[in-house]
């Protein structure tokens, strides 16, 4: 089980305090393919629904001390922007 916080808004990196205030999305990772691109989503084990965040073409940047940093792209309207997730294991 993972707790995920987004670290960017519309491709712009958020300040550390803003990241700490972001909604936490909890669940298990699901990796699939959508429109020919790899997609990482978070599925809740309680509701079987998906969190409203997706990371396309995800890359694990770092993993240490129960924390992971993932980078990829998200949709922002009709364009793709860089997104990063801070992930903690439960």
Summarize the structure.
The protein has one helix and eight strands, in the order βββαβββββ.
Describe this structure in words.
This protein has one domain. It contains one helix and eight strands. The N and C termini lie close together (6 Å). The mean pLDDT is 94.
Share of β-strand residues: over 45%
Order of helices and strands: EEEHEEEEE
| Molecular shape | globular
Roughly what is the average pLDDT, rounded to an integer?
Answer: 94
Count of helix runs: 1
In spatial order, strands of the major sheet run 1-4-5-6-7-8
CA-to-CA gap between the ends?
A: 6 Å
Largest sheet: 6 strands, antiparallel, barrel
Task: Tally the structural domains.
Answer: 1
Quick one: how many beta strands?
8
Helix proportion: under 10%
Class from helix and strand fractions:
mainly beta
Point out poorly predicted stretches: none
Radius of gyration: 13 Å
Topology record:
Layout: E1 2-6, E2 8-9, E3 12-13, H1 16-20, E4 25-34, E5 37-43, E6 50-64, E7 67-76, E8 79-89
Antiparallel strand pairs: 1-4, 1-8, 2-3, 4-5, 5-6, 6-7, 7-8
